[in-house]
């Protein structure tokens, strides 16, 4: 079993609150806002507090506590233009985007941001968002087969001329994209993330993506996923980085952090959480091995709709930092953090938690490694 970590230092991303309602489906106070001005200030705060990435959410219609939402690709570009270093990842759905049209947008965004644009391919989410638009809702593994072609087409048109591709979902003939995205020493084309938990998601991540995003997991769940993912990658002569979702509640005392979690769950918007559960659990349960996203999520897990409490980044700065570094030892390359009060908690994380993470990483580095 391999649990090597590719990155020398673990990286941090945050969920962009471009969707109303916050990151937990609860009536607890959440000092956050989905509007542009708030998000510009937040992005600037994040890049000045050690965050390298931000992930813009994708929803198309009001649902499950999220009444309003800004479109992910355009909002990502706006945040890129308002920042200097932050890399912004736009979540997208194959089936609602053509990969070459998105590749064209991505090339432009990459030039405008000096190489900081990225894509997260979301293979499944809400069935209603497809059927309400008159689009077909494919069976689980078919959605991932489509995403596999989507990822391949995007990379080909970003890196090759006169592209030919004959798939079951996309057919490209003699297509050349210009300008192509920037080719930098850090990456040959915009980074491609593949989200999911299922076997099909792991296969796509290992074969075609640069990064694999997982829902929240404990240590055992992370180890099992990383082992699968990197076995697939090695079989295809590739390396893939691993990102993990986690809802971060760092407070001066453990009691304060645990009390905050308890209040979040006690004030959960039960109809919205249960509606969300009914909408998404069919996706994971539709897989043959029941390994898909949300297949075994409890009500409490789903109050944070990407199982963020499962990662257990909850406690004092020391406790949170120690757990983050423990995940790094298992092979996690990036933590995707959600917060209750985004602005002040990202500042708190940068001041109180991140320095401890770097100290622990330095202390555990092999002799002779800076």
TrEMBL record:
Broad EC category: oxidoreductase
Asked whether the UniProt record includes Flavoprotein among its keywords, one would answer yes
Query: Could you identify this protein by its name?
Result: Alkanesulfonate monooxygenase
Q: Is rRNA processing among the key words of this record? A: no
Which species expresses this protein natively? Gordonia paraffinivorans
What is the superkingdom listed in this entry's lineage?
Bacteria
Q: Where is the Luciferase-like domain?
A: 11-333
Q: Keywords in alphabetical order, please.
A: Flavoprotein, FMN, Monooxygenase, Oxidoreductase
Q: What is the lineage of its organism?
A: Bacteria, Bacillati, Actinomycetota, Actinomycetes, Mycobacteriales
Look up the EC number in the record and give it.
1.14.14.5
Which Pfam family is one of this chain's hits?
Answer: Bac_luciferase
A single GO molecular-function term is: alkanesulfonate monooxygenase activity
């Amino acid at each position: 079993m391999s649990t090597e970590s590719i990155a020398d230092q673990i990286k941090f991303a945050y969920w962009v609150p471009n969707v109303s309602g916050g990151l937990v489906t609860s009536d607890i106070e959440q000092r956050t806002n989905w509007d542009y001005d708030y998000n510009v200030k937040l992005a600037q705060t994040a890049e000045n507090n050690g965050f390298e990435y931000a992930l813009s959410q994708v929803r198309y219609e009001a649902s499950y506590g999220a009444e309003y939402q800004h479109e992910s690709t355009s909002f990502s570009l706006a945040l890129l233009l308002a920042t200097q270093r932050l890399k912004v990842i736009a979540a997208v759905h194959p089936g609602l985007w053509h990969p070459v049209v998105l590749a064209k947008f991505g090339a432009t965004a990459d030039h405008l941001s000096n190489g900081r644009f990225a894509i997260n391919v979301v293979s499944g989410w809400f069935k209603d968002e497809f059927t309400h638009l008159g689009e077909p809702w494919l069976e689980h593994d078919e959605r991932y087969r489509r995403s596999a072609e989507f990822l391949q087409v995007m990379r080909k048109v970003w890196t090759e001329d006169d592209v030919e591709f004959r798939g079951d979902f996309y057919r490209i003939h003699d297509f050349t994209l210009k300008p192509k995205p920037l080719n930098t020493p850090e990456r040959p084309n915009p980074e491609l993330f593949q989200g999911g938990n299922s076997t099909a998601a792991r296969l796509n991540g290992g074969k075609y993506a640069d990064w694999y995003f997982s829902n929240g997991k404990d240590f055992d769940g992370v180890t099992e996923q990383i082992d699968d993912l990197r076995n697939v990658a090695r079989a295809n002569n590739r390396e893939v980085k691993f990102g993990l979702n986690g809802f971060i509640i760092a407070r001066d005392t453990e009691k304060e952090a645990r009390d905050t979690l308890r209040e979040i769950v006690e004030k959960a918007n039960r109809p919205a959480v249960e509606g969300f559960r009914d909408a998404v659990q069919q996706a994971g349960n539709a897989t043959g091995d029941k390994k898909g996203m949300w297949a075994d999520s409890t009500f409490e897990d789903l109050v944070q709709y990407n199982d963020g409490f499962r990662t257990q980044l909850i406690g004092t700065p020391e406790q949170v930092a120690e757990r983050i570094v423990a995940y790094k030892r298992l092979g996690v390359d990036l933590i995707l953090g959600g917060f209750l009060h985004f602005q002040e908690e990202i500042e708190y994380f940068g001041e109180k938690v991140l320095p401890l993470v770097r100290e622990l990483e330095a202390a555990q580095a092999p002799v002779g490694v800076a």
